[in-house]
Amino acid sequence: MNSIIEAAQARRAAPVAAAAGPQTLHLMTPQNAARWDAFVRACPQATFFHLSGWQSVIEQSFGIKTWFYFVEQDGQIQGVLPLAEIKSRLFGHSLGAMPFCVYGGVAAIDDGARVLLDGAADALARQLGVGHLEYRAMERAHPHDPSWLTKELYVTFRKEISAVDDENLNAIPRKQRAMVRKGIKLGLKGVVEDNVDNMFTAYAHSVLRLGTPVFPKKYFALLQKTFGAECEVRTIYTSDDRLVGSVLSFYWRDEVVPYYGGGMDLAREVAGNDFMYWNLMQAAAARGCRLFDFGRSKLGTGAYDFKKNWGFVATPLPYEYKLYAADALPDNNPLNPKYQLFIKVWKKLPLPVANFMGPYIVRNLG
């Protein structure tokens, strides 16, 4: 590990101001996790997905190795970079910031720290022999560096919301607003739950219909346990307590991020999905949130259309890739034609079989 840090330091290009002490590169340990999180919460570039808790969640849920680098100067953290390695015979060998997270990459308040962290990632990628390195930032960090590539695949949907319910409801386009009103008239209700049991049931049914492998239930339980009040499970029921759907959301600063959700077959009959996100928006607004992050979607998918129909504007996510052993950008997504047969077969699996097999596959996707 020392060789990685030394190599990263050797790549540093920006000198430290004479009045300041040297910037040094470190790996996060449990002893400095609180300092890490304090920096993340204060750094404008940082996101919920930079928090230290992701290390234990990812390692314990998927058995994936992580490296959480930070740069320190005069006893103060200047920048952080969480990284994780995925090594799969099916989907390739990569180092990323971060798998299972929609946002990632370097979060820093100093250019020297950014260079040092980039160097650490480059050195680690070379040592591990990965095919590629991936950053998942909302903006390109290296727009003028030809060694960093990008492609159009993902967008995010983020929109300001009001403290007034009527204003938020009227901002939803007419057709989707009618669906929300349908759910209200049918007496649907949202309940915040302290476990992931019903959330996992709704989610597993939903992803099976899409032909997508399911995450392990323990992953959702760990998210709820690790992030506490910043991770909410909101489940939707009919007036007679039948399960309709559920969504696991993150609260971050003045934002709410619905992250994993799904619905039972019943959801289509009762406009359950529309009501679920409306119910979440109401609760988030009452909690003081002023930005609703509808999350990442792939171009050309049903999720993309659903969010657009809610009046959200798509913003491209220019994920960056640096190639090492690979000679082409990764294309591990359901829109890739070579996965269509797999998706068709997966949709036909019995739910218990899909729930058993899914975690072994999804850990390789990130």
Automatic annotation (TrEMBL):
<feature type="domain" description="BioF2-like acetyltransferase">
    <location>
        <begin position="193"/>
        <end position="308"/>
    </location>
</feature>
<protein>
    <submittedName>
        <fullName>FemAB-related protein (PEP-CTERM system-associated)</fullName>
    </submittedName>
</protein>
<dbReference type="InterPro" id="IPR050644">
    <property type="entry name" value="PG_Glycine_Bridge_Synth"/>
</dbReference>
<dbReference type="InterPro" id="IPR038740">
    <property type="entry name" value="BioF2-like_GNAT_dom"/>
</dbReference>
<dbReference type="InterPro" id="IPR016181">
    <property type="entry name" value="Acyl_CoA_acyltransferase"/>
</dbReference>
<dbReference type="Pfam" id="PF13480">
    <property type="entry name" value="Acetyltransf_6"/>
</dbReference>
<dbReference type="InterPro" id="IPR017469">
    <property type="entry name" value="PEP-CTERM_FemAB-rel"/>
</dbReference>
